[in-house]
Design brief:
Alpha-D-Glucose-1,6-Bisphosphate, Chain A, domain 3, 7-stranded mixed β-sheet, single chain, TATA-Binding Protein
Length: 558
């Protein structure tokens, strides 16, 4: 792969020949080895990459690289206990896990520390799995009308990452992803504990933790399911007798669809009910890895094949905070396209939402959203990448919708109050069904109407390897470093390193012209950088923007 000299950034690679095909057996992870490495390996504390590092979604890694081990989870959980004590948070802690192989062991480890610290902990009964949005909603419902003894939560998930990965997130009492002041505190304390050999970690044996008086085993499924009617028009979906399909992608939402069908009288086929921590049923993603990315046409190839059998189909990732929408008219919808359709529908079909409530989007999401929001007379709140930026607005109702280009979103209850402050994949899938039921047209058809009104959007995101040096320099780039005045034949209108919606640093750069833009930013959790680009002229114009974007960034970093 060619390397860009002097910048620490590399060009994107070709699509793997395995992309979109069933995962070959030799690609599957060795579960016994993975769990053994988790328990036995201690991180190399001289390697910064093996310390606790929180990105936008907590700490992620793999035992195979020494980046996600029992030692990490012991330290992080003790740090969370210490943070709760410092903040005076003494209500219950809701803890969920997804279906990744490491999530069960990590939950057991965490529970040993929580019980030793006398933290009241609520987990799904029967050792079951729990989606991210279920934890968020549970925290918010518990804390409603409370001023003290507030609840918070932990979700053990690496999201859509490969099967060998683990992840660990903390959600404070506002129910959403922890902000940087919280994650930095927990990160620093956890690394302090690691450097001390975890001698400062309190711990009880596994069986004692499971049966401790502080550990409560509750059903978290039915309260979430029954409450769906407060955020969606479930009666409309039922009365339209839609034939709907869902693929949980082997994730934590799998146990939820049978009760959803039963309680609301829906006809939702679960086309894949397998829970397999090797994710052997997946088709391979673009880079030749198994990745449960429900926005990827390669990972979603199986569901896309079924598009003509159902009026709407959708999928969620392992912790169910992302969504992928498949329609007969379009196949797999680009996440940006569905966000635009969802926003237009919700603003015109939620009369109890306050007129002053803004619409939130990340600044790498499509400008089609800007056009829709402007037409509807709403304020747009454009923020950096990371769902944490939507938490405050969703919490107090000043933001009615928050969405990311990476297929994560949530929105308010029908009465205009908070539903979740973390991404909710199932309600986005069910929203696609509601849109189809109430309008008689699937979301793909609605998007075609938007393009007839506003023009076609051509959008692309490229991932490429990046060195630590390249990522650091890109993160600190200033607008003055951009010497170019044109982007693909059009004058540059703005060069942004801070988000227009809240003035927060975007940890990268966005360059905007009249009919196109690009943004470049380093990943917080992987050794890659990302270029996002959009054109409202043509695919050729988009390709030109992408090519110039790489030149502009490389020139700025020299």
């Amino acid at each position: 792969m060619p390397h860009t000299v002097g910048t620490g950034l590399s060009q994107p690679g070709a699509v793997s020949p395995l992309a979109g095909k069933p995962a070959p057996r030799e690609m599957l992870i060795d579960l016994a080895r993975l769990e053994r490495e988790y328990f036995e390996r201690f991180p190399d504390l001289e390697d910064p990459g093996q310390l606790v590092v929180f990105g936008t979604s907590g700490h992620r890694g793999s035992p195979l690289q020494g980046t996600f081990t029992e030692a990490h989870i012991l330290a992080i959980t003790q740090a969370i206990c210490d943070y709760r004590r410092w903040r005076g948070t003494d209500g219950p802690l809701y803890m969920g896990k997804d279906t990744h192989a490491l999530s069960g062991p990590a939950q057991r480890t965490a529970l040993e520390v929580l019980a030793a610290n006398d933290v009241g902990t609520i987990i799904q009964q029967g050792g079951g799995v729990t989606p991210t949005p279920v934890i968020s909603r549970a925290i918010l419902v518990y804390n409603r009308d409370r001023r003290e003894h507030l609840a918070d939560g932990i979700v053990i998930t690496p999201s859509h990452n490969p099967p060998e990965d683990g992840g660990f997130k903390y959600n404070p009492p506002n129910g959403g992803p922890a902000d940087t002041d919280v994650t930095r505190w927990v990160q620093d304390r956890a690394n302090e504990l690691l450097r001390g050999g975890n001698s400062g970690v309190k711990r009880v044996p596994d069986q004692k933790a499971v049966t401790a008086s502080t550990t409560q085993h509750e059903d978290l499924i039915l309260p979430y399911v029954r409450d769906l009617q407060s955020v969606l028009d479930m009666e409309a979906i039922r009365d339209a007798r839609l034939h709907v399909a869902v693929d949980p992608l082997g994730g934590a939402a799998q146990p939820y669809w049978e009760p959803i069908n039963s309680i609301f009288g829906l006809d939702i086929d679960v086309v894949n009910s397998v829970l397999d921590p090797t994710f052997s049923f997946m088709t391979v993603d673009h880079d030749g890895k198994i990745r449960m990315d429900c926005s990827s046409p390669y990972a979603m190839a199986g569901l896309v094949e079924l598009k003509d059998r159902y009026q709407v189909a959708f999928a969620n990732d392992p912790d169910s905070d992302r969504h992928g929408i498949v329609t007969p008219s379009t196949g797999l919808m680009n996440p940006n396209h569905f966000l635009a359709v969802a926003i237009q529908y919700l603003i015109t079909h939620r009369p109890e939402w306050r007129q002053t409530a803004a619409v939130g989007k990340t600044l790498v999401s499509s400008s089609m959203i800007d056009k829709v929001v402007k037409k509807l007379g709403r304020d747009l709140r454009e923020v950096p990448v990371g769902f944490k930026w939507f938490v405050a607005g969703l919490f107090d109702g000043s933001c009615c919708f928050g969405g990311e280009e990476s297929a994560g979103a949530s929105f308010l209850r029908r009465d205009g109050t908070v539903w979740t402050t973390d991404k909710d994949g199932p309600i986005m899938g069910l929203l696609a069904a509601e849109i189809t039921a109430r309008t008689g047209k699937d979301p793909g058809e609605h998007y075609r109407e938007l393009t007839a009104e506003f023009g076609n959007s051509y959008y692309k995101r490229i991932d490429a390897p990046a060195s630590a040096e390249g990522k650091s320099r890109l993160r600190k780039l200033s607008p003055d470093a951009i010497r170019e005045s044109d982007l693909s034949g059009e004058p540059i209108i703005s060069k942004l390193t801070r988000a227009p919606g809240n003035g927060a640093p975007i940890d990268g750069l966005k360059v905007v012209a009249e009919n196109g833009w690009f943004a470049a930013r380093p990943s917080g959790t992987e050794n890659i950088y990302k270029i996002y680009a959009e054109s409202f002229k043509s695919k050729e114009h988009l390709d030109s923007i992408v090519a110039e974007a790489q030149e502009i960034v490389n020139n700025a970093l020299r």
